[in-house]
Amino acid sequence: MGDAVELQAGGRTVRLSSPDKVFFPERGYTKLDLARYYQAVAPGILRALRERPTTLERYPDGVTGESFFQKRAPKNMPDWIPTAHITFPSGRSADEMCPTEEAAVLWAAQYGTLTFHPWPVRRTDVDHPDELRIDLDPQPGTDYDDAVHAAHELRSVLEESGLRGWPKTSGGRGLHVFVPIEPRWTFTQVRRAAIAVGREMERRMPERVTIKWWKEERGERIFIDYNQTARDRTIASAYSVRPRPHAPVSAPLRWEEVGVAHPRDFDIATMPARYAELGDVHADMDDHAYSLDALLDLARRDERDHGLGDLPYPPEYPKMPGEPRRVQPSRARKSPS
Questions:
Q1: Which one of 23, 148, 279, 293 is CB 3.0 to 4.6 Å from 259, fit for a cystine?
Q2: Could you give the percent of the chain with pLDDT greater than 90?
């Protein structure tokens, strides 16, 4: 696998063992290629991860090997990487790593981390999200171009509520739009704001967009996955490598690029050149913090005027106050009244 190499990041040295181990056989990219990629975009991915409890999606033997999500901070983690104590919906808790230096990203890459999944909170306040994250998820029969149509309408919906979104590719067929917000609301309230966005999108694009939780009801539409805003649900960070054969990355975009650029344009070989030319196109996100008041007012109007309250949580979550019956419609129709 070759002798270990030492990489520099922010004044620290990170040792990379087995640098020649192939992580992406289709392209021949090695563990060292992965680490070099993260070196090239280090300020950008650190901006996305800084101070955030982060779950590591690890592939120690590369993309074709076994994988797992590591939520708890590894026991061998250096003491210069801080942690945050977080609580899961089950009531259990854990200490998760919170990157504060570029070297933390390289350290994680040494242990086969491809994708970083940060919480939408900072370690100083783990109960109040500072990002509203909208996931535009293509369903069977739809593709990235359909997500693009939805994203442009989503931009309008957000702007009408006084919000600005920053778009990025998912690294697959979808798009993510992140809105920096004031850390004043709970996970439940932020999720309710996401539901309000989804319902407004449904009203405007009923043939193209859905917020239906049950797959049997979604049809060939873009699903706005409001449950990605529930506690302990995370979305791959900007610049994260995704576990697919061609080594794609989740690429931050400018709005004028949405519909022009394509997810296949961005991988660990092409993103460094883009980053060297443009820098982090989402660098100004942390300069903003918006209010959710307008979206929460919309949620209240939906409930008051149309009887539209909460929507189902994922099956592993405890039953929540005000949540409708958590059973798929086809099964509910077969149940005795």
A1: 148
A2: 94
